[in-house]
Amino acid sequence: MPKQPVGRILVVDDELSLMGALRDTLRDEGYRVTGVTSGARALAALGEEKFDLVLTDLVMPGQDGISLVEEALRIDPHLVAIIMTGHGSIPTAVEAMQAGAIDYVLKPIRLNALIPALERALTVRRLREKNAELESRVSERTAELEAANRELEAFSSSVSHDLRTPLRTITGFAELLLAREAAALPPEARRRVELIHAGADEMARLINGLLDFSRMGKKALEPGPVDVGALCREVFAGLGGEHAGRRVELRVGDLPSAVGDPFLLRQVMVNLVSNAIKFTRPRNRAVIEVGVAAVRDEPGPVYFVRDNGVGFEMRDAEKLFGVFQRLHSTSEFEGTGVGLATVRRIVERHGGRIWAQSSRDAGATFYFTLSPGPRP
Description:
Elements: E1 8-12, H1 16-28, E2 32-36, H2 39-48, E3 53-57, H3 65-75, E4 80-85, H4 90-98, E5 103-106, H5 111-180, H6 187-218, E6 224-226, H7 228-238, E7 247-252, E8 258-260, H8 262-279, E9 285-293, E10 302-307, H9 339-349, E11 354-358, E12 364-369
Parallel strand pairs: 1-2, 1-3, 3-4, 4-5, 7-9
Antiparallel strand pairs: 6-8, 9-10, 10-12, 11-12
Helix pairs in contact: 2-3, 5-6, 6-9, 7-8, 8-9
């Protein structure tokens, strides 16, 4: 007896007695079977009912098994078909399989050969349906993500216009008070105005960070060769104002070149090196090392940026890459909590991944990979 679920089978044979005998035998085996004696009747049945499998004779008057299979698959692309043929028509049966049939069985039909063929074909049918269901879910999920991205873009636009305007008013009047009324303000009142101004500045940085994060997801990639070592040195030099007056040493190893968007990869390095400079501030002598690590199961180079700064607890590692996630207060270290989220978005768009290792007060290392074929 066939395993559940039972297949719905359409038997097609122009010899009425053979069709009837095969139909009844398969019913006895537990299948749900309909029998017809021509290709035209088979197509009509397929238009009226849903079948899982067509079991058709190869040679029939009017319409042969090959053309029937082709038309049946146009009606239901997930349908499976098995050809029944005599020994002398095996090459033609192979041709039928090229036209879309799953298998063929030889006449006279032996049940011990037919049942396994039916089960294999019905398994293919179920897999086709499952794949179609998964593809549908992926399409739905993709549509949901596209809608979410559109909403994010609309929100970003709203942030840019609706929030910046009143924020400029707050900042402007706070600056006016501090510039013109500072002498007349009591110390506590002046402190409060300064807090208002500082809070407005912080909100402006958060807005800019959110907009930058949104833009990174929309910018089309323009891949090209990138000299990662030279890029690190340029970035460090460009951040000179952040480490002026400090002892900060940059060590750049022998780094292989990468393929990626030069502008976006520069943003990765700016964020990672800038973080290393910032979180090594308590050190008398800061060391920032950029190199390549050997990591098991990683086919390409694994770049890293390591520092001897304040570090973090590993239980908080994943939080680092969330938008507006911070492990230190703004009174300790400035920042918006958007930089590493932006880095992860860029790295993932390049087909790579990023992760971090650290322990408190023992520095931090950020690893990332880049695929040779970044996504557009």
